């Protein structure tokens, strides 16, 4: 088994990123070979202030390490320092079909009404994502629910490339999507996912929010006046309530039904302070480690450069095999 996954280094990582992906990465690294990277080439598919990128890349790396990613166990790097990602993306652009990309819902959401003006990079974003994964012969990709379609596309690209050129260059990877936590919703709207790009900071809990901010955000989270039922089935049609129970459950390493077993019959006046405590207690050590790490940017750069050296070595054979398969001498 070989695991790979990534996160965009723009905007602060939030509780959705943590519960849907990062927490799982920290667990998997003890059992499996893991590669985790900062998707900085994906970040530039929309305009990002060039002067700020180096800092946000370091901060995202510091956040991951603060969450428990151990650079001695996980190969931690950023895409731009491993040119094979961009090279492989080109080879795969020639395998991916326009019709496949036209079906990508994330492109439709991100490009919005002004599609003609979206960058070509944003359109072919999922092909770069396929390159990230296929370069390393990854077998499993732990992600949140929103990445499912990109993973299916990755499998289609791998299969078509292998078939077209008649060689098994790529492993066809499996997504790893958790049962609970794979889709954490906004605190202001239970039908929208928690997202870095939501204009309201009250809609999400950032991993580096201080305790007072977290308590305020949980207190102000949208809910309803009904008491809690004793199983998740009873929360149908109450997306905000279901979301808060899910967050509680994943943080406490319990099932949502176990959590409801404890709170059945009680209202949010009782539930929210307990949830706030749980989030504060989980994020407090993460924020403390983040502050320490942020004070040593040279150390973070060293970690990312070490990771990139390892990633270059791990990706080189597959890149060479892909060039050979398409018939290009190098
Ligand atoms: P990104 O940066 O949007 O998110 C990083 C991870 O967090 C998950 N996630 C969530 N999980 C649960 N609830 C939410 N509200 C929530 N929001 C985000 C995402 O599913 C993701 O797992 N395209 C990717 C980055 C990427 C990548 C890859 C991932 C680039 N190449 C190769 C895997 C493999 C992205 O933008 O993730």
Automatic annotation (TrEMBL):
It catalyses: tRNA(Trp) + L-tryptophan + ATP = L-tryptophyl-tRNA(Trp) + AMP + diphosphate + H(+). ATP binds at residues 8-10, 16-17, 144-146, 184, 193-197. Its main location: cytoplasm. It holds the Pfam family tRNA-synt_1b. Its EC number is 6.1.1.2. A motif ('HIGH' region) lies at residues 9-17. PROSITE patterns: AA_TRNA_LIGASE_I. GO terms for biological process: tryptophanyl-tRNA aminoacylation. Homodimer. Catalyzes the attachment of tryptophan to tRNA(Trp). Belongs to the class-I aminoacyl-tRNA synthetase family. This is Tryptophan--tRNA ligase. The lineage of its organism: Bacteria, Pseudomonadati, Pseudomonadota, Alphaproteobacteria, Sphingomonadales.
